UniProtKB/TrEMBL annotation, chain A:
<dbReference type="GO" id="GO:0005886">
    <property type="term" value="C:plasma membrane"/>
</dbReference>
<protein>
    <submittedName>
        <fullName>Carbohydrate ABC transporter permease</fullName>
    </submittedName>
</protein>
<keyword id="KW-0812">Transmembrane</keyword>
<feature type="transmembrane region" description="Helical">
    <location>
        <begin position="112"/>
        <end position="131"/>
    </location>
</feature>
<keyword id="KW-0472">Membrane</keyword>
<feature type="transmembrane region" description="Helical">
    <location>
        <begin position="143"/>
        <end position="164"/>
    </location>
</feature>
<feature type="transmembrane region" description="Helical">
    <location>
        <begin position="82"/>
        <end position="100"/>
    </location>
</feature>
<dbReference type="InterPro" id="IPR035906">
    <property type="entry name" value="MetI-like_sf"/>
</dbReference>
<dbReference type="InterPro" id="IPR000515">
    <property type="entry name" value="MetI-like"/>
</dbReference>
Automatic annotation (TrEMBL), chain B:
<feature type="transmembrane region" description="Helical">
    <location>
        <begin position="115"/>
        <end position="133"/>
    </location>
</feature>
<dbReference type="Pfam" id="PF00528">
    <property type="entry name" value="BPD_transp_1"/>
</dbReference>
<dbReference type="GO" id="GO:0005886">
    <property type="term" value="C:plasma membrane"/>
</dbReference>
<keyword id="KW-0813">Transport</keyword>
<feature type="transmembrane region" description="Helical">
    <location>
        <begin position="262"/>
        <end position="287"/>
    </location>
</feature>
<keyword id="KW-0812">Transmembrane</keyword>
<keyword id="KW-0472">Membrane</keyword>
<feature type="transmembrane region" description="Helical">
    <location>
        <begin position="205"/>
        <end position="226"/>
    </location>
</feature>
<keyword id="KW-1133">Transmembrane helix</keyword>
Length: 294, 296
């Protein structure tokens, strides 16, 4: 590679670097600001004196959260939901993707099932029929409503299926020669090789179940049964229309528990903040392999 | 050649997924009947009387329907354009950086917002755009009036589109990164030997090379023109901004689950689903024709 050092190139690279650093900060600052607010003195926060650094450093809000039973109940419901939801969809998606990766010659019903799946992915009854279904299945106020209510993640099935299809046929054939049955081939040969794509869909389902708030809002009658995001929404996000005249909005930050809410928001994103840098290589690989090949 | 007797094992493997698919994806479609009925929850869907297209007629007479349709398309279209151009420009900028450590760090930082839920992002935005928050601090410092962002119908669509681009541009750039790394490095070397400057190489090699991916993504995104982002708007809006912020999905939620107008809400949702399905089918077949892209 020939490198040239003209004035224009240097200026171009310099401005580019500065802009990129600015973009990076733009993505990180809101999180940092929320942390600062949560660690600040209440009065300073509501007076708008906090900018990039906590003012009147205090762990008061975090101390309050430790004694907040509702927060922990919701946190636990979210964890439960993630474990069940991610576990179930991991197994079911794997079991569906493998037979569907066969050609219709090898497995006759394949095409019919595939078209049904694609139709179910692209078309749905909408909100009200969904709600009526959940109600008639008795899933109101049940954790299973949250775990299963999102429906089969068809997109993930297609992702994994495409991965299996691109695997060399010879691997399976040699296992077959050695006397392995279909289950053994799937679990001992295909699954270990599919770990990158399985890890990707695991990340997607974990994030989905951790972040989902709306189904719980509709399905749970009592707010004690809310998962964390729905709880956060209830305490920190809802813009109460009755309080929305100008005077109150101006005073709102003073009235509300801004620092406490910031602390709750920060804690609820903490698990993802911790894990996602480690999972990055998987989802980057998975998303490029599942969608467009450059 | 695989053993014939495997077929029944394959069926067994598919069974849990098919049951799930039936109950939670296919069975709700039966509820679509409510769109054609005077639905009474007390007696169930089947026994409720048929009313034909009445719900649909009523929908077109409503004043709201024009507003929500216009808002949906406007917001979705603005997001579509922004979510294509911003990630593309960002990926091109990052591609010019030769320091691996630096570009890794930037990438990790910009993926972050994608993983936060709209509840959390809305919570943070309420603080940042509040009356005494940092944005208004800066505005008043520069001599402008403070703005009540979340009560301002003029401002609201910009907040929605801007925050969506902020949240997703890093993640959307992944596809462009992949396309950029697959460009043959020999082309750059040959161009450099011929005396092409960094700028020339960008405009003559890099940009033409990722045009196909860009066109493909633009085509595919057409199918989403009625999806303006329920989760986001639901967390950010209030009655004060209904005139510019209410979209089909949020309206359906209020009409159906809050005001209990089941039939009407189902009708609106059904129309949206049908139009959406047609758009997606068209955009997928265009993508197949022009870019040879298939999803399965």
């Amino acid at each position: 590679m020939i490198s040239e050092r003209s004035a224009f190139t240097r200026l171009f690279n310099g401005i580019n670097l500065i802009l990129l650093v600015a973009i990076m900060l733009l993505c990180l600052l809101p999180v940092w600001y929320t942390l600062s607010i949560s660690l600040s003195d209440k009065a300073a926060a509501s007076a708008g004196q906090v900018f990039l650094w906590p003012k009147g450093l205090t762990f008061g809000s975090y101390n309050k959260i430790i004694h907040d039973d509702q927060f922990f109940t919701s946190f636990f419901i979210s964890v439960q939901r993630v474990v069940y939801g991610a576990g179930i969809s991991f197994i079911v998606v794997l079991l569906m993707a493998y037979p569907l990766s066969k050609t219709s010659k090898e497995f006759k019903p394949r095409n019919v099932i595939m078209w049904t799946l694609v139709f179910a992915m692209l078309f749905n009854g909408g909100l009200v029929p969904w709600y009526l279904t959940m109600k008639s299945l008795g899933l109101i106020n049940s954790i299973w409503g949250l775990v299963l209510g999102g429906g089969l993640p068809v997109f993930n099935v297609i992702l994994v299926m495409n991965y299996f299809r691109n695997m060399p046929k010879e691997l399976e054939e040699s296992a077959l020669m050695d006397g392995a049955g279909p289950w053994r081939i799937l679990f001992s040969i295909c699954l270990p090789l599919a770990m990158p794509v399985m890890a990707t869909i695991l990340v997607f389902t974990i994030v989905y179940h951790w972040n989902e708030f709306f189904q719980a809002l509709v399905l749970m009658n009592k707010s004690e049964k809310y998962p964390l995001q729905s709880y956060i929404r209830q305490v920190a996000v809802i813009i109460d229309p009755t309080k929305m005249d100008e005077e109150t909005v101006k005073n709102m930050s003073g009235l509300s528990n801004q620092t406490l809410n910031a602390a709750k928001i920060f804690i609820s994103m903490l698990p993802l903040l911790i894990v996602y840098p480690f999972l990055q290589k998987y989802f980057v690989k998975g998303i490029t392999l599942g969608s467009v090949k450059g | 050649m695989l053993n014939k007797s495997f077929a029944k094992h394959y069926c067994l493997m598919l069974l849990p997924g098919l049951i799930w698919l039936f109950f939670f994806n296919l069975f709700p479609m039966y509820g679509i009947l409510t769109a054609f009925k005077d639905f009474n929850p007390g007696i169930g869907i089947l026994k409720s009387p048929w009313i034909g297209w009445e719900n649909f007629q009523y929908m077109f007479e409503l004043n709201d329907s024009k507003i929500i349709f216009r808002n949906t398309v406007a917001i979705a279209f603005a997001k579509m354009v922004g979510n294509l151009i911003v990630p593309l420009v960002f990926a091109l900028m990052l591609n010019e950086v030769k320091n691996r450590m630096f570009s890794r760090t930037v990438q990790t930082a910009v993926y972050l917002p994608h993983f936060l839920s709209w509840v959390i992002v809305a919570g943070m935005m309420l603080d940042i755009f509040s009356y005494s928050g940092p944005v208004n601090q800066v505005l008043s410092g520069m001599g402008f009036e403070r703005i009540l962002f979340f009560a301002d119908a003029q401002m609201f669509p910009f907040l929605v589109v801007g925050s969506d681009i902020w949240k997703e541009f890093g993640f959307n750039a992944i596809i462009f990164f992949a396309a950029l790394t697959s460009i043959n490095p020999e082309m750059y070397e040959a161009a450099a030997i011929d005396g092409a400057s960094q700028w020339k190489r960008l405009t003559r090699i890099t940009i033409p090379s990722i045009m196909p991916v860009t066109v493909l993504l633009a085509t595919l995104s057409l199918g989403n023109i009625l999806n303006a982002g329920f989760d986001q708007i639901f967390n950010l809006y209030s009655p004060m901004v209904y005139s510019t912020g209410d979209i089909i999905d949020t309206w359906v939620y209020r009409a159906g689950l809050i005001d209990m107008q089941y039939g009407l809400a189902t009708a609106v949702g059904l129309l949206k689903s049908v139009v959406g399905l047609c758009l997606i089918t068209v955009s997928y077949s265009l993508a197949y024709r022009f870019a040879n892209y298939r999803i399965f």
